[in-house]
Amino acid sequence: MLLDCISQVTETKEKFRGLPLGSRAVQIADGTTNTYFLTTFGRAKRETVCSCEVAMEPNLSQALHLLNGQTTHGRVEQGGVVGKLLADKKTPEQVIDDLYVRCVGRKPTETEISTLRGYLPQDQAEQKKVLDDVFWALLNSEEFMFNH
Fold this sequence. Notes:
The protein has 148 residues and is mainly α. The chain has 2 domains: 57 residues, no CATH class; 69 residues, no CATH class. The chain is 56% helix and 0% strand. The chain starts with a helix and ends with a helix.
């Protein structure tokens, strides 16, 4: 589910063996189909009907993959969501609102928006980098990971 949610909010598509581009991880019927993400997050091999095949405990590999791996950072860049929003002439505050609604299903609190405003530079090219970082941070937030 987490991989599907990341793909959806970043507007990127995943390719799984035997399925067309854009298929969702929940559509995989073959238990031998794996990606680094699925392996790291405990994909069941589906050798039995027992749910005990799934590793449910969080681990360091999962945290490092989300923080440093291509699943979050690479998809923020690949999907270009922030760039599209800025191209639509949205202000940085509107982009932040959109990212919050997209990732956690709510608008940012006044405290969150005022804190983030303090990080926004005047230079528009630099604003995109900061807004991409906000997107990445939201994808790595507990609120995103545990609400999806």
